[in-house]
Design brief:
By secondary structure, the chain is mainly β. It contains two helices and 16 strands. It is about 5% helix and about 35% strand.
């Protein structure tokens, strides 16, 4: 296309912006933006409403929904608070999105509420009869008493046996007690 329309860094627009060509936003726009071409929000640019275009590239900040017919690209440093809808969406490392992301050919034109209404209805099945009660099971046998011979040896853990809890750790005393000092 021809040269894009540029909204400069010191420019602030309040209201809806529409056009048939490409648009570069380096300033601030407080209103919806709709273009048939490509919309680029530069790193210093800020849009305070939704953007709809054939292709959208964001390097700055947008607070609103983004809807693209072909592709939507969020480059490093981009900040978007709103929903993204496009057939193809690319988010570079360092790009931030807070909202829903919807891709696919139908995703760009169908709003979220319409997608929910087209969901397949749940099929209800008649309630199945409860199985007959099973015979009462015998209570489990009491646990075996542990004896010195029943303790697993250290190699049993390697063989697949489940070891018991580790022995308690007793801190070593730096100085012996009075009883041990008398023995020396």
């Amino acid at each position: 296309m021809a040269d894009p329309t540029v909204i400069g860094r010191g420019t602030q627009i309040r209201g809806r912006v529409t056009g048939t060509g490409d648009l570069e936003i380096a300033g601030r726009v407080d209103g919806d933006v709709a273009c048939s071409g490509e919309v680029t929000v530069e790193s210093g640019g800020l849009v305070g409403a939704g953007i709809s275009a054939r292709r959208i590239v964001v390097r700055g900040a947008v607070k609103g929904d983004l809807v693209a017919e072909e592709a939507l690209v969020l480059e490093q440093g981009a900040r978007v608070v709103g929903d993204l809808k496009a057939p193809r969406i690319a988010i570079a490392p360092g790009g931030l999105v807070r909202g829903h992301v919807q891709t696919g050919a139908a995703g760009a034109s169908r709003p979220r509420a319409a997608a929910a209404s087209r969901a397949t209805p749940a099929v209800t099945k008649p309630a199945a009869k409860a199985p007959p009660p099973a015979a009462k099971k015998a209570p489990p046998p009491p646990p075996a008493k542990k004896t010195a011979a029943a303790k697993p040896h250290r190699g049993a853990a390697l063989a697949g046996a489940r070891p018991g809890p580790p022995p308690p750790v007793v801190p070593a005393l730096k100085k012996g007690t009075k009883a041990t000092q008398k023995k020396r």
